[in-house]
Amino acid sequence: MNGPPRSSDILPADAWQRRWLDLRQQLWPHCTADEHLAEMEQFVADPGRFAQFLAFGAPDEAIGLVEVALRHDHVNGTQTSPVAFLEGIYVVPHARRSGVARRLVAAAEQWALDRGCAEFASDARLENIASHAMHAALGFVETERVVYFRKVLT
């Protein structure tokens, strides 16, 4: 690519590591930079399984991130394999409700279609009502609600 990204560009995140990391840290602030960087390295090393895209607002300003993966294991609510799975999506607060998430998901969908996927899945925490609304607005339909349990064995 020549020059800085333009407003409205959706580009692979691989070439914009610092901006990708910045957005990941906003989405998942409980993880350290080193944890993010290690995971990002895994994603970049396996482009057949992972894709990540950034949305740009003003020239050179990353305003959104989407990460998608191919899953070959069972994905709740789906009937095919592989399934594209929305691992994470984030849009900076000042750019929300402006179509950025829709453009990011469209890039992820095209990536999934190019890899033969017939379904695109995602998940969200039960209490994350804003995420539920965003998923619905982007065309996802709720398939089930799950509560996970565990028991420590002694």
How does this structure look, described?
This protein has helices at residues 17-27, 33-45, 100-114, 129-137, and strands spanning 10-12, 50-56, 62-71, 83-91, 120-121. The protein has 154 residues and is α+β, with helices and mostly antiparallel strands. It has one domain (10-137): Aminopeptidase, CATH 3.40.630. A five-stranded mixed β-sheet has the order 1-2-3-4-5, with helices on both faces. The longest helix is centred in the last third of the chain and has 15 residues, at 100-114. The protein is globular and about 55 Å long. The protein starts with 9 loop residues before the first strand and ends in a 17-residue tail after the last helix. The model has no long low-confidence stretch (mean pLDDT 94).
Keywords:
4 helices; globular; 5-stranded mixed β-sheet; Aminoglycoside N(6')-acetyltransferase type 1; Aminopeptidase; Aminoglycoside_N6-AcTrfrase; acyltransferase; antibiotic resistance; 154 residues; alpha+beta
